[in-house]
Design goal:
single chain, mainly alpha, Structural Genomics Hypothetical 15.5 Kd Protein In mrcA-pckA Intergenic Region, Chain A, 2 domains, 3-stranded antiparallel beta sheet, 6 helices, 4% strand, globular, disordered C terminus
Amino acid sequence: MGDPKKQRKKYSTPSHPWQRIRIDEERILLREYGLKNKREIWKADSIQKKLKDQFKKLVAEKREQADIERKQLYDKVIALGVLKPESKFDDVLNIGTKDILNRRLQTILFLKNLARSIKQARQFIVHGHICVAGKKITSPSYLVRVNEEDTVCFAENSSLKDEMHPERVAIKEKKSGVGSEEK
C-alpha cells in the first residue's frame, strides 16, 4: 500500500523527449489554455488514456460485473461533460486531451466570462476567490462536472464578488479601428 505521505506521479511523461511535432503542439496548448507547465498537459493526457484503457478492458469482458462497470464508466464520462449525453459508449475512444482541458475550472471560469483572460482565471482560482457548489477551490486543474458548472462563482468573502471591482469591470474599447467611421 505504501506510505500515505509519499507523493506519487499522476501522469506519464512522453516516451521520447525530443519530438518536434509534439513539442509544438504542447506549446500551442500551453498558450491556449494558460497552463503553468507541460506537466498539466501530461496529467490531462494521462486521464484520457486511463479512460480509454478502462473502456478497452471492459469491452473485452462479457460478465455481468463488466456490464455494471461499463455503465458506471459511461455515466462518469457524461457527468464530467467530456461526452454529450446522446453519444454512444464507443465514443469514449474519441476523447482527446483537449476534451479534458476544456473541463478544467480555469477554462470554465474564462468561458463564463468571470475573468478577462485565461491567466487571470488561474490567478483568481489560486488566490482563493472561486467557489464551486459553495466550496472554495484553489486548484486550476479541478475537473468541473456538468451539474457543478452553474455553481461556479466568486467566494462570499472575496472582494471580486462586487461587480464594480476594477478587475471585473470590462475594459471599454475605443471606437477607433475597424468598422468605425468618424465624420
